[in-house]
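Severity: low
Component: inverse-folding endpoint
Summary: output formatting inconsistent between runs
Steps to reproduce: submit the following structure tokens with default settings.
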């Protein structure tokens, strides 16, 4: 039952992030990215455009009211958020998440017409690419995003960054649009063995009588037994059992040997 509930929560969080991206696509200009049009000199990443051509080619400005262009931006959001699942080893492929999203947009809106150009389809393609970039800015929970920036002059790529990568073991990231570039470590005396933690509740508590020593803890083995004379509740730091139990010189007398069997043990061996 708990597993089903957690899966439902994860789905709601993921949908919430994508829905926010859709809302951003339909925001009044200027939105987070774009709307980019073929007549623009550059796109949001600084790539030269100036795609619109003179008559006899169709000019999209005359059709803005009859075509739901933000819908194509929403497609870009979807393409971006599914990219890590469709390409789980994308970080080793040499392509960023944004690359894969752009590729999908370009494939979806490719065309082969007699005149060799269609301003309407170019606008849909650019809207889709805008959605990819908005998705990168929003970033899905359980992942962190390396934002895209214009590349250096001697770089072959038009931009650097553009990755959405899973949070590693021992960390998590909630739906926090103000902090998308890093994952947070689990609280002290907690650990997480899996990747893609979406909330602090994904971190497991250390057992009673143990605590953590490191900043990022990825296994129950990182929960170390409390020293003699100390004890901890589940998910808590080690504390003295009694004011006297942590004193270095305290040892049980032979007559008090039964104390050795007490749980928690009072005193020091």
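Observed output (run 2 of 3):
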């Amino acid at each position: 039952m708990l597993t089903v509930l957690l899966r439902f929560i994860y789905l709601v969080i993921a949908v919430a992030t994508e829905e926010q991206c859709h809302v951003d696509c339909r925001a009044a200009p200027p939105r987070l990215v774009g709307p980019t049009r073929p007549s623009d000199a550059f796109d949001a990443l600084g790539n030269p455009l100036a795609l619109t051509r003179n008559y006899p080619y169709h000019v999209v400005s005359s059709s803005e009211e009859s075509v739901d262009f933000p819908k194509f931006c929403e497609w870009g959001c979807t393409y971006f958020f599914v990219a890590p699942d469709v390409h789980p080893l994308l970080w080793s492929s040499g392509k960023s998440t944004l690359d894969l999203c752009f590729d999908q947009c370009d494939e979806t809106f490719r065309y082969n017409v007699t005149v060799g150009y269609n301003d309407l389809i170019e606008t849909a393609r650019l809207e889709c690419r805008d959605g990819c970039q908005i998705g990168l800015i929003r970033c899905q929970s359980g992942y962190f995003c390396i934002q895209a920036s214009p590349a250096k002059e001697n770089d072959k790529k038009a931009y650097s960054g553009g990755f959405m990568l899973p949070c590693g073991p021992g960390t998590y990231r909630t739906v926090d649009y103000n902090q998308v570039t890093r994952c947070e470590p689990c609280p002290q005396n907690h650990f997480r063995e899996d990747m893609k933690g979406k909330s602090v509740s994904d971190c497991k508590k250390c057992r009673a009588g143990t605590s953590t020593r490191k900043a990022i803890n990825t296994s129950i083995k990182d929960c170390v037994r409390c020293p003699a004379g100390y004890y901890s509740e589940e998910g808590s730091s080690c504390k003295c059992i009694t004011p006297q139990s942590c004193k270095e010189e305290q040892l049980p007398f032979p007559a008090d040997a039964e104390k050795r069997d007490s749980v928690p043990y009072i005193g020091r061996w």
